[in-house]
Design goal:
The protein is an all-alpha fold. It has 9 helices and no strands. Helix 2 (about 40-60) crosses helix 5 (about 105-125) and helix 3 runs antiparallel to helix 4 (about 95-105). The longest helix has about 35 residues, at about 220-250. It is globular. The two termini are about 35 Å apart.
């Protein structure tokens, strides 16, 4: 990754951290309703930053149109996998593909792939709503993290699959936690003892948030993590090999060079 790619990714990640974690950043006295309608603006800003990430990554990596086309194919495949199981008990094979694709494509393209896959799947399933920009950010981080794992050019075989399985297990829980944080502040505070309290201390709200996660999403997160681990360990080797072959054929074009002066 070049400097422009790093700056673009840091910028979009900073926007995401503030947009998702503002209840814990602002502290007591936060006005929940003031941020309830911010999702469309976040979505518009996210699209602009995604374009910046794509442009910076392409210009600095030397990837050609074939690689961009492969990115589109993988995003479509991820979107098609998401409706399988409709999220029932965490049966979401899309996460397995994102881990392996991020590992092969690297962090820059991985972030874009994760975000675009979630965007396409929302259009495919009719899941467009104020939660969509947070899903795009979370999946982008999830896929980017796989591209940041060590040994991308040396580690292979069972050791690599074990590392990816462990990462997928942890990242599946992280994805669920981030999505919980995005929706948790907008619960009716009078309806539940685990709801966000604008006037409560950080410690009290953290305790409420942990209880909220345990009560609402632990089963789905565990199912998602377990499926990701099983698929990575069983068919991950074959998928990684296929992705690497496709990347080698699509990624780079031989550049024309001249030994002497051009007439």
């Amino acid at each position: 990754m070049g400097p422009r790619s790093v700056i673009a990714l840091l910028l979009v990640s900073a926007v995401g951290v503030v947009a998702i974690g503002w209840p814990l950043i602002t502290g007591p006295g936060s006005q929940v309703n003031a941020h309830a309608q911010d999702a469309p603006w976040l979505f518009a800003g996210l699209l602009v930053l995604l374009v910046a990430v794509v442009a910076a990554t392409i210009s600095e990596s030397g990837m050609g149109p074939k690689a961009v086309a492969m990115l589109g194919v993988l995003a479509a495949a991820g979107a098609a996998l998401r409706p399988i199981g409709a999220g029932t008990a965490g049966i979401e094979p899309m996460f397995f593909l994102m881990v392996l694709s991020g590992r092969v494509l690297g962090p820059g393209f991985g972030f874009v792939l994760g975000s675009l896959s979630m965007f396409a799947s929302a259009l495919l399933t009719g899941g467009v709503g104020p939660w969509m920009p947070f899903q795009m950010l979370s999946m982008g981080w999830f896929t980017m993290g796989a591209g940041l794992l060590p040994g991308p050019f040396r580690l292979r075989g069972a050791a690599e699959r074990a590392m990816l399985a462990a990462y997928g297990f942890l990242a599946a829980f992280a994805y669920g936690t981030i999505m919980n944080m995005a929706g948790w502040p907008f619960m009716n505070a009078l309806a539940s003892s685990v709801a966000y309290q604008p006037d409560a201390s950080l410690h009290d709200n953290l305790a409420r948030f942990v209880a909220y996660c345990l009560a609402t999403s632990l089963g789905w997160d565990l199912g998602r993590a377990a499926l990701t681990v099983v698929l990575t360990l069983t068919v991950g080797g074959a998928v990684l090999n296929a992705l690497r072959r496709a990347t080698r054929r699509a990624a780079f074009e031989a550049q024309v060079t001249f030994d002497g002066p051009v007439p």
